[in-house]
């Protein structure tokens, strides 16, 4: 829900926060209105709006941020709102408003509807859709200039986390591959009505143009393996029995298709469809635990190897890691460039992750 000042009414001792007109908020839908006008103005200022911009707003709520966006002199505001009560409230609020011709309200689920063209996204979103919405925006075409979005603070800190940070995880790596992310504002929970249980942060996301020259399916497959035990060495991770079996299966499949020696980094480009795949990975990407999981994966030692081929394949994998000096490194300390280089070494040796 987008921000602004609201009125709170009590009814019969059991009432909660309500909109003007008596419409109750529904916390289950993430309806927390930003009540501090100074913060709304700060968000508008940091968005860097231009007179030619079409702005996408998600969850406009009572329309306080919507009003400020229109007053900022943009070309148009497209507001996507799920709750029909809020859509009605917006219609009433802007009926007869001198800038109403610049406002278009779409009633629907932002994760399910086709988004129109926009230059910039400015939004205070329901936090439960943070991960799928982020990747839906990054898969949108044509590519927009930037998004300025209010997230739950921990999710925001994962977006901007750097190698070596405690919160650095698969979410950090994947989002930063596709965009430049920066933290703009910390917002305390008391700035909302009703107040959520967590603090928030405003983040700026700028999609990279063009997309990196890498197959996203390959990239995500590698990162999944590496971050399964992000604080273990890559040498230990790639000795795990299930990892070796998976890679060997892919290797043999590619060989049978006569593609193993022909695939090089940059040959297959990342597509919007590849990026959109992540929109369904809410649980494992949004709030991954940073603690190590129980080390229940068995390493495959030489005694586990059946036949010369399997032992040779393990040596091949270890050789690739040693070639790039990765065997003793940890995923939690690797940068985007490191992962891209590692993927290129695997692919050039005919080893694939998808």
Automatic annotation (TrEMBL):
<keyword id="KW-0698">rRNA processing</keyword>
<comment type="similarity">
    <text>Belongs to the class I-like SAM-binding methyltransferase superfamily. rRNA adenine N(6)-methyltransferase family.</text>
</comment>
<feature type="binding site">
    <location>
        <position position="109"/>
    </location>
    <ligand>
        <name>S-adenosyl-L-methionine</name>
    </ligand>
</feature>
<dbReference type="GO" id="GO:0000179">
    <property type="term" value="F:rRNA (adenine-N6,N6-)-dimethyltransferase activity"/>
</dbReference>
<feature type="domain" description="Ribosomal RNA adenine methylase transferase N-terminal">
    <location>
        <begin position="39"/>
        <end position="209"/>
    </location>
</feature>
<dbReference type="GO" id="GO:0003723">
    <property type="term" value="F:RNA binding"/>
</dbReference>
<feature type="region of interest" description="Disordered">
    <location>
        <begin position="1"/>
        <end position="21"/>
    </location>
</feature>
<keyword id="KW-0949">S-adenosyl-L-methionine</keyword>
<dbReference type="Pfam" id="PF00398">
    <property type="entry name" value="RrnaAD"/>
</dbReference>
<keyword id="KW-0489">Methyltransferase</keyword>
<keyword id="KW-0808">Transferase</keyword>
<dbReference type="InterPro" id="IPR029063">
    <property type="entry name" value="SAM-dependent_MTases_sf"/>
</dbReference>
<dbReference type="InterPro" id="IPR001737">
    <property type="entry name" value="KsgA/Erm"/>
</dbReference>
<feature type="binding site">
    <location>
        <position position="34"/>
    </location>
    <ligand>
        <name>S-adenosyl-L-methionine</name>
    </ligand>
</feature>
<dbReference type="InterPro" id="IPR011530">
    <property type="entry name" value="rRNA_adenine_dimethylase"/>
</dbReference>
<dbReference type="InterPro" id="IPR020598">
    <property type="entry name" value="rRNA_Ade_methylase_Trfase_N"/>
</dbReference>
<feature type="binding site">
    <location>
        <position position="59"/>
    </location>
    <ligand>
        <name>S-adenosyl-L-methionine</name>
    </ligand>
</feature>
<feature type="compositionally biased region" description="Basic residues">
    <location>
        <begin position="1"/>
        <end position="11"/>
    </location>
</feature>
<protein>
    <recommendedName>
        <fullName>rRNA adenine N(6)-methyltransferase</fullName>
        <ecNumber>2.1.1.-</ecNumber>
    </recommendedName>
</protein>
<dbReference type="GO" id="GO:0005730">
    <property type="term" value="C:nucleolus"/>
</dbReference>
<feature type="binding site">
    <location>
        <position position="32"/>
    </location>
    <ligand>
        <name>S-adenosyl-L-methionine</name>
    </ligand>
</feature>
<feature type="binding site">
    <location>
        <position position="81"/>
    </location>
    <ligand>
        <name>S-adenosyl-L-methionine</name>
    </ligand>
</feature>
<dbReference type="GO" id="GO:0031167">
    <property type="term" value="P:rRNA methylation"/>
</dbReference>
<feature type="binding site">
    <location>
        <position position="124"/>
    </location>
    <ligand>
        <name>S-adenosyl-L-methionine</name>
    </ligand>
</feature>
<dbReference type="InterPro" id="IPR020596">
    <property type="entry name" value="rRNA_Ade_Mease_Trfase_CS"/>
</dbReference>
<keyword id="KW-0694">RNA-binding</keyword>
């Amino acid at each position: 829900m987008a921000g602004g000042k609201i009125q709170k009414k009590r009814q019969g001792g059991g009432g909660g926060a309500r909109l003007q007109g008596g419409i109750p908020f529904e916390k289950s839908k993430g309806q927390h209105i930003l009540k501090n006008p100074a913060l709304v103005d700060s968000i508008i200022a940091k968005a860097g709006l231009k007179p030619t911009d079409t702005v996408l707003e998600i969850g406009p709520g009572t329309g306080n941020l919507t009003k400020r966006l229109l007053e900022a002199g943009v070309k148009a505001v497209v507001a996507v709102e799920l709750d029909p009560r809020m859509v009605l409230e917006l219609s009433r609020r802007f009926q007869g408003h001198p800038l109403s011709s610049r406002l278009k309200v779409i009633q629907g689920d932002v994760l399910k509807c086709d988004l129109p063209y926009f230059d910039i996204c400015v939004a205070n979103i329901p936090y439960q859709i943070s991960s799928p919405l982020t990747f839906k925006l990054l898969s949108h075409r044509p590519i927009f200039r930037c998004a300025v979005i209010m997230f739950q603070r921990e999710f925001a800190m994962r977006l901007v986390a750097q190698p070596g940070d405690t919160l650095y995880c698969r979410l950090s790596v994947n989002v930063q591959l596709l965009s430049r992310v920066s933290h703009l504002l910390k917002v305390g929970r008391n700035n909302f009505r009703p107040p959520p249980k967590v603090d928030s942060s405003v983040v700026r996301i700028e999609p990279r143009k063009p997309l990196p020259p890498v197959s996203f399916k390959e990239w995500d497959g590698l990162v999944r393996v590496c971050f399964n035990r992000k604080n273990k060495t890559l040498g230990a991770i790639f000795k795990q029995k299930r990892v070796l079996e998976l890679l060997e299966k892919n290797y043999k499949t590619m060989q049978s298709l006569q593609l193993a020696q022909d695939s090089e980094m940059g040959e297959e480009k990342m597509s919007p469809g590849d990026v959109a795949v992540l929109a369904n990975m809410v649980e494992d990407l949004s709030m991954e635990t940073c603690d190590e999981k129980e080390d229940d994966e068995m390493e495959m030692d030489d005694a586990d190897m059946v036949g010369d081929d399997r032992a040779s394949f393990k040596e091949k994998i270890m050789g690739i890691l040693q070639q790039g000096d990765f065997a003793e490194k940890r995923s939690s300390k690797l940068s985007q460039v490191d992962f891209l280089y590692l993927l290129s070494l695997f692919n050039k040796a005919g080893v694939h992750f998808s």
